[in-house]
């Protein structure tokens, strides 16, 4: 039998890391089956948009293209780029919501999940997630414009606001404001945990992006020292496929950050509210009766 991972308890940084990967390892098949059933169609649309975007971008940079068609290519690139951006946002929102609602079902049913309930909750929460994402993005973006430090300070609690939206059933504004209260007095520990997870995900993402980078450099002649700008053509099926694989891998790797964020949320929630502790005490009482 699979080991049940109790989310509702306090953890140190090492336990957050080990339980993040332990959860994904134990739940690999049901989790990614649920993930791709819900997010899969939007991921396919996103990758198709990516392929078209790279094709049009390559045409725009192609030195042999006629100048008369450059304006048309620029317009098409703008349209495809807009569609690509919308597909990324939709896929990212659904990905984050699916992961968090999967964890909610997992914790509520002691290791078992209900797919239809998860799917219903994900679609129902799409616009609240979108609204919260826009709000968080604006605040962090403005913060980063002021010497970087305010943006980092705001990002740490606001990253957890999505978990609050799901697990505490709060509205967008409540989740936004409560995230600061949750992290209060625990900012540095939260920052350290998120930073370590970010390093792991970033390094893993670069690993998947490395083949595409090497191929592009080799094709451009940078590695051999011979750059043929006149005959260089960005429209290449191989580089597009490698780019798709890299984009998909980095997108899926983001689930590591979401799971870790959920564990950090429950750790802070236990330190402040002892929710899981009270639930376990009640369960013991019911068992004795």
Short description:
This protein has helices at residues 13-26, 28-61, 70-108, 115-124, 126-145, 149-159, 161-167, 172-183, 187-220, 237-273, 275-288.
What is the N-to-C order of secondary-structure elements (H for helix, E for strand)? HHHHHHHHHHH
User: What number is the mean pLDDT?
Assistant: 86
Helix proportion: over 70%
Total beta strand runs: 0
Rg, Cα atoms, Å? 22 Å
Ends: how far apart? 27 Å
Number of helices: 11
Instruction: State the shape.
Output: globular
In total, the number of domains comes to 2
How would a textbook summarize the main sheet?
A: none
Strand percentage lies at under 5%
- Uncertain residue ranges: none
In terms of structural class, how would the helical and strand content be classed? mainly alpha
Question: What's the layout of helices and strands?
Answer:
Blueprint (H helix, E strand, L loop, with lengths): L12 H14 L1 H34 L8 H39 L6 H10 L1 H20 L3 H11 L1 H7 L4 H12 L3 H34 L16 H37 L1 H14 L1
Helix pairs in contact: 1-10, 2-3, 2-10, 3-4, 3-5, 3-7, 3-10, 5-6, 5-8, 6-8, 7-8, 9-10
Any overview of this molecule?
- With 289 residues, this protein is mainly alpha-helical.
- The protein has two domains: 19-124 and 185-273, no CATH class; 125-184, no CATH class.
- Helices cover 80% and strands 0% of the residues.
- The protein contains eleven helices and no strands.
- Helix 5 (126-145) runs antiparallel to helix 6 and helix 6 (149-159) crosses helix 8 (172-183).
């Amino acid at each position: 039998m699979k080991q049940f991972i109790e989310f509702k308890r306090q953890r140190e940084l090492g336990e957050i890391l080990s339980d993040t990967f332990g959860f994904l390892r134990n739940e690999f098949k049901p989790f990614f089956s649920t993930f791709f059933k819900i997010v899969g169609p939007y991921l396919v649309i996103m990758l198709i948009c990516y392929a078209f975007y790279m094709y049009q971008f390559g045409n725009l940079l192609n030195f042999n293209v006629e100048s008369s068609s450059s304006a048309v290519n620029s317009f098409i690139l703008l349209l495809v780029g807009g569609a690509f951006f919308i597909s990324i946002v939709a896929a990212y929102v659904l990905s984050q919501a699916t992961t968090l609602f999967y964890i909610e079902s997992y914790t509520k049913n002691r290791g078992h999940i209900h797919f239809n309930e998860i799917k219903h909750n994900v679609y129902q929460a799409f616009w609240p997630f979108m609204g919260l994402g826009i709000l968080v993005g604006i605040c962090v973006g403005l913060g980063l414009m002021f010497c970087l430090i305010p943006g980092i300070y705001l990002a740490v609690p606001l990253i957890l606001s999505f978990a609050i939206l799901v697990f505490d059933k709060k509205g967008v504004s409540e989740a936004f404001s409560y995230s600061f209260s949750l992290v209060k007095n625990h900012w540095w520990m939260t920052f350290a945990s998120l930073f370590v997870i970010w390093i792991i995900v970033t390094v893993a993402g670069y690993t998947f992006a490395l083949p595409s980078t090497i191929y592009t450099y080799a094709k451009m002649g940078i590695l051999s020292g011979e750059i043929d700008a006149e005959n260089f053509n960005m429209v290449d099926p191989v580089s597009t496929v490698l780019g798709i694989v890299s984009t998909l891998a980095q997108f899926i790797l983001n689930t590591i950050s979401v799971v870790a964020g959920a564990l950090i949320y429950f750790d802070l929630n236990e330190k402040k509210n002892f929710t899981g502790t009270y639930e376990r005490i009640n369960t013991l009482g019911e068992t004795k009766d």
